[in-house]
Amino acid sequence: MKTLVVYSSHTGYTKKYAEWIAVDLKADILNLKEFTAELAGCYETIVYGGWLKAGKISGLGVLKRHLKDLGNKKFCDFCTGNMLGTREELEALVKKNFTKKESAKIKTFYFRGGFDYKKLSRINKFIMRSLKFVLQIKKNPTEGEKAIIESFYSPVDYTAKENIKELMDYLKNG
Asked: How many domains does the chain have?
């Protein structure tokens, strides 16, 4: 199974997962900035990884624009973020990022990444400060929301190679 792993990473957590996946699959790896449909043509399987920004998977639109051009290839997607990754969160994530037809073709996985406020761009710092404010005034924040607030004060890294196991099983066993 010739596989291409494509990723978009802002602070490095998504790239770390993409590299682990590529090594385990003996796959080629490519930053989304270098991706073209022509280049992807010679692969049987494409794995895309993006980071979450306000519940949207970064860079996913680029891949989705090429879906019809890529035929019957096997696709899967993973995304990283600071949320806990409950079943409900994953269902909401899929609903927000894919149509029903797309979600039938693309299996989505979530890996907890991390958060380092200092690594964010100016605009993303602004967005995250707004989120922090909203969470701080919330009456009954969830455990995940409390963890997000705490991560502003000291960087957190939840990446772990064992998190990719379910995706690897899916790719190897269908």
From this structure: 1
Nearest one of 66, 173, 58, 164 to 111, comparing CA atoms? 164
118 φ, ψ (degrees, to nearest 5) = -65, -25
For residue 79, give the nearest of 100, 107, 108 by alpha carbon: 108
- The answer to the question of residue 16 being in a domain is yes
Please report which helix (H) or strand (E) contains residue 173, including its range.
helix 165-173
Does residue 162 lie in a domain region? yes
Q: Single out the residue of 35, 42, 64, 79 nearest to residue 167, CA to CA.
A: 79
Cα(131)–Cα(52) distance, integer angstroms: 14
pTM of the shown model: 0.87
Residue 131: what residue type? L
Euclidean distance between CA atoms 61 and 147, whole angstroms: 29
87: number of Cβ within 10 Å: 8
Give tens-digit pLDDT for 83-142: 888 888 899 999 999 999 888 888 999 999 998 888 888 998 998 899 899 999 999 988
